[in-house]
Amino acid sequence: MAVDTKFIGREYKPTTYVVGQEKIKEYALAIGDLNPLYIDPVFAKNSRFECIVAPPMFVVVFAKDAMEVLFADNEIKLNMSRLVHGEQEFNFHQVVKANDTITTKGRIKNIHQKNNNDFVELETKSYNQNNELVVDGLWTFIVRG
Amino acid sequence: MSDYKINQELEPVQIEVDKYRSYYYAGASGDFNPIHLDNDFAIKVGLPGKILHGLCTMAFVYRTVMKNNDPDKMKKLSVRFRQVVRPSDKLTIKGKVIEKENDTVKIGLIAENQNNEQVITNGCAVIVVGT
């Protein structure tokens, strides 16, 4: 059954995430990115950032909560067993640092059908504690028909 | 990261996905979808077996472009997940400069597995060059 296009524009309750230094390190090790800015506190302290910073792709850790809110939406009811992640885009505006508090707002940007598959696009915008946009994302999920 | 030329190819990066990578990534990212962790479950939903998280492969694409450079220079990264990546796959990630304007360059990216199948297509990175 096609995903109803009436959900285009739906906005979700923002999710909040506090970025931990050790969590950054754990993530950097998991993706094999050993930039010392992410894992070496002394090196990072002496850098222009003056503390550990998160790899840009760490966005998935805090913005993922917005994705889960979409997946848990009982009204749109995406068929999770038919769902695949089709495309992903991130625009990076500012480096995220350890101890930042990131608030992510999710919104359904588009729903359309192609070749019997449903494409659901979730837009996320993540802001730090100073209300500065740090990264926005476009998550395209495909519900296979 | 300053002297990029149009059509210049980045040095390809080869990454062997180790057997446990999807477990590390699940723990670090918080994405515990069983398609990444449980072979039987993955097969039941029509996959060839447990698969790596697409966003982990995307992080490998980031590494290919940026290496240890200042993360602030990465302005945009986008990919299409064309085919699943499996534990023990050997990936080759290739990039090519496709546009250059003022202080930014745009790099087109793909990732292939050991069977020369494209797992990531339509990859695009925009980075700031110079200081």
Q: How is this structure best described in words?
A:
The complex is a heterodimer of chains A (145) and B (131). With 145 residues, chain A is of the alpha+beta class. Chain A is built from four helices and five strands. In chain A, β3 and β4 form a beta hairpin. Chain A is elongated and about 55 Å long. Chain A has one domain: Thiol Ester Dehydrase, Chain A (Roll), CATH 3.10.129. The mean pLDDT of chain A is 96. Chain B is an alpha+beta fold and 131 residues long. Chain B has one domain: Hotdog Thioesterase (Thiol Ester Dehydrase, Chain A). Helix content of chain B is 21%, strand content 34%. Chain B has three helices and five strands, in the order βαααββββ. In chain B, strands 1-3-4-5-2 form a five-stranded antiparallel beta sheet, covered by helices on one side. In chain B, β3 and β4 form a beta hairpin. The termini of chain B are close together. At the A-B interface, α1, α4 and β2 of A face α1, α3 and β2 of B.
Structural class of chain B: alpha+beta
Instruction: Report the biggest beta sheet of chain B as strand number plus sense, adding barrel if it closes.
Output: 5 strands, antiparallel
What is the string of helix and strand elements of chain A?
A: EHHHHEEEE
Q: Give the chain pair forming the largest contact, with residue counts.
A: A-B, 33 and 31 residues
Tell me the strand order in the biggest sheet of chain A. 1-3-4-5-2
Straight-line N-to-C gap of chain B: 9 Å
Beta content of chain A: 25-35%
What's the assembly state of these chains? heterodimer
Number of helices of chain B: 3
Helix content percent band of chain B:
10-25%
Rg of chain A, nearest Å: 17 Å
